[in-house]
Amino acid sequence: MYRKILITTDGSAVSSKTACAGVQFAEQLGAEVLALFVAPEYQYPIYVEIIPPSYPSEDEYRAAMQRAGQEHTQDVVASCARRGVRCEAMTAFHESAALKIVDVAQQNGCDLIFIGSHGRSGWGQLLLGSVTNKVLHNSKIPVLVHRLIKEPGK
């Protein structure tokens, strides 16, 4: 059915729970996993004429985000290794996480995006914006939304 599943993570407890469910799903199907962390692009400080010395350079920022991406995808990679699921992890940079998720899935031959949802609706969803909804709207490949009924730790 599905051979390569993109699983996104942002390092939060919700995305960790989703990633666990995604790895189990991939194992059941015999699919491989691409674990993805999307970091925002580097932003130069605005409204200042001189960049403060304490402000990180673009190279420092990118290196820090690469390390964060490795930390955030580490659980997915470890879970895949325990279950015998082939896995690759990557960090990508873009201002719109949703658009980058869709782009990475297409560029890497994924045939399913496995993504989480907090289960918010109404004003909560409208005010916060939803990466999941944007992925659903923009993806041409199937998207499986794993909805958490309650927040982890509650």
TrEMBL record:
Signal peptide limits: none
Coiled-coil boundaries: none
UspA domain segment(s): 1-145
Domain of life: Bacteria
SUPFAM superfamilies: Adenine nucleotide alpha hydrolases-like (SSF52402)
Family: Belongs to the universal stress protein A family.
Record-given protein name: Universal stress protein
Organism: Duganella rivi
